[in-house]
Q: What sequence folds into this?
């Protein structure tokens, strides 16, 4: 191998295609986002760009819709964690075994994960169709017509509807990651606990749960980072409405740029998203490393 | 005498086993019912796609009165799902081939050769995993406008490659690092160079990771909305996500058509998933890190 190491030119040829695309279409644009955030411009080709320094950041920080978006992202994060972690763990415990048909059952819970978010959002829009959709029709038949809400049109409710749909779509991943953690627990440990007289609840509480702390951390981190970038579902379901009730950073950025033609403010939003994501990832990595050492 | 005892024991064991199985029956039934309730929205969409528009809001749980396969023909031809389908197939195929080629070439030299600068290049790639797609939208929109790259598949595929490469390299690097050295040493003794090692040793050995990454790449591109939304404006160049989104716009009352379109969009992904369940689950859970 040493002889091969010397051929720099040849080695570079192997790296070049990946490096070229990566640098030109990912690294360069990110750096440019920071630069563009310092200008006021409307995004039309050839339009003037005025240098405004940090004004764009001041504008978004003074914009109530920006804070609403950030708050909604936090709400979706909290909702996803509070629902998907217990429910995903429950499913994983249910499906941690070997019996005929288990692959099919697992596939049922994982199916929404592989489907396109666009189609899932449209499907739910159809199911939640006011009055006659599957949900309202079903509730009416059960004689629970007074429970019916304007699921996606009521500003007080829309965000919760969106959270539940996101959970429905994402729970398969949480379940599979929990399952990988459960499978990794050696049978000997469980056997030892059983011989010591532990009942099932004690086994779960004192043996299983402590041993899957690491995968739980991974799940939480993935949910946090994934929610920050949420866009597709919400764009299709509500496009941030009604009255910005479901606005998130992704849709805020998109409409600032491509509906309101405020490209400078959109770039500033992109920078904020990048920084939040960067910080969260660093914290997450730090936390995960500590988990790994302790566990 | 001996045989009687064993026979007796075997009978006892057997009946014990069947009893255990039966005691677990409520558990299996409960779990299955839960799974069916969970994916009922999907079953409902599938059933609705065969119904008539008059039927959908009266018949929630039953089978269609008659199976209308023409809904699919309608969505495929009139709803132009067929054309968008081909566009998506075209984009995904080129993307998957190129991203696997480029990432595996880079991972190969990064994982198998030594050098401080190679480690630096590796970390440079890995840092890209932290970049959310939103952070590149505005500059790329600007570039596409000033260079007239809107409605160019090559530009869109290029962006897909750029955002796919960091994660693919990260995973492939880990896999290739763990491969044994003996085979490549044999190639070197035979006088082979880097290309022979890559082509004859690394690629065949890396098949599992290439499959996982290929599936992940296919799914993420097939399902992508935001990049296509931004860079493909001409309606006959739309991808499936865009076609689906506008399907609901044009035919607000054609719900059976919409359901048929939703089913059509997801058929390839579901086929891939059912035939390669373990790969898909591994790829997607690993891929979730990237998001």
A:
């Amino acid at each position: 191998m040493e002889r091969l190491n010397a051929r720099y030119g040849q080695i570079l040829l192997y790296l070049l295609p990946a490096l070229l695309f990566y640098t030109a279409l990912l690294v360069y644009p990110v750096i440019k986002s920071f630069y563009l955030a310092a200008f006021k411009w409307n995004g039309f080709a050839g339009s003037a760009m005025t240098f405004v320094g940090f004004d764009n950041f001041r504008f978004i920080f003074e914009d109530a819709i920006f804070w609403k978006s950030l708050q909604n992202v936090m709400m979706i994060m909290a909702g996803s964690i509070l629902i998907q972690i217990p429910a995903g763990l429950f499913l994983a415990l249910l499906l941690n075994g070997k019996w005929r048909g288990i692959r099919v059952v697992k596939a049922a819970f994982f199916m929404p994960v592989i489907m396109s978010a666009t189609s899932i959002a449209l499907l739910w829009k159809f199911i939640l169709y006011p009055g006659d959709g599957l949900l309202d029709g079903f509730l009416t038949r059960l004689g629970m017509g007074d429970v019916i809400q304007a699921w996606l049109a009521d500003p007080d409710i829309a965000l919760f509807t969106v959270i539940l749909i996101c959970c429905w779509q994402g729970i398969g991943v949480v379940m599979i990651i929990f399952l990988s953690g459960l499978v990794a627990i050696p049978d000997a440990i469980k056997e030892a606990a059983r011989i010591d007289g532990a009942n099932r609840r004690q086994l779960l509480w004192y043996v299983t749960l402590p041993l899957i702390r690491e995968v739980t951390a991974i799940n939480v981190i993935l949910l946090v980072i994934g929610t920050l970038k949420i866009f597709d579902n919400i764009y299709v379901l509500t496009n941030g409405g009604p009255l910005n009730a479901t606005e998130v950073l992704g849709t805020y950025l998109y409409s600032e740029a491509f509906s309101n033609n405020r490209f400078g403010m959109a770039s500033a939003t992109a920078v904020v998203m990048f920084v939040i994501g960067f910080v969260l990832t660093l914290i997450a990595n730090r936390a995960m490393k500590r988990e790994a050492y302790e566990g | 005498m001996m045989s009687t005892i064993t026979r007796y024991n075997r009978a006892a064991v057997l009946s014990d086993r069947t009893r255990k199985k039966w005691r677990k029956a409520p558990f299996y039934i409960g779990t299955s019912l839960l799974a069916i309730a969970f994916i009922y929205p999907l079953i409902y969409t599938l059933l609705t796609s065969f119904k008539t528009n008059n039927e959908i809001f009266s018949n929630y749980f039953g089978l269609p009165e008659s199976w209308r396969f023409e809904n699919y023909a309608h969505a495929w031809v009139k709803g132009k799902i067929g054309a968008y389908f081909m566009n998506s197939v075209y984009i995904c195929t080129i993307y998957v081939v190129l991203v696997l080629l480029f990432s595996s070439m880079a991972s190969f030299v990064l994982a198998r050769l030594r050098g401080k600068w190679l480690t630096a290049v590796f970390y440079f790639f890995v840092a890209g995993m932290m970049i959310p797609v939103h952070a590149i939208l505005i500059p790329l929109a600007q570039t596409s406008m000033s260079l007239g790259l809107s409605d160019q598949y090559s530009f869109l595929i290029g962006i897909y490659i750029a955002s796919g490469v960091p994660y693919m390299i990260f995973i492939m690097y880990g896999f290739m690092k763990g491969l044994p050295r003996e085979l490549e040493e044999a190639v070197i003794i035979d006088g082979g160079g880097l290309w022979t090692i890559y082509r004859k040793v690394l690629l065949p050995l890396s098949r599992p990771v290439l499959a996982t990454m290929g599936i992940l790449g296919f799914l993420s591109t097939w399902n992508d909305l935001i990049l296509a939304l931004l860079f493909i404006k001409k309606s006959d160049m739309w991808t499936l996500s865009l076609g689906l989104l506008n399907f609901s716009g044009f035919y607000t009352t054609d719900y059976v058509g919409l359901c048929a379109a939703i089913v059509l969009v997801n058929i390839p992904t579901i086929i891939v998933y059912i035939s390669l369940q373990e790969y898909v689950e591994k790829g997607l859970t690993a891929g979730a890190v990237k998001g």
Summary: Chain A has one domain: 53-294.
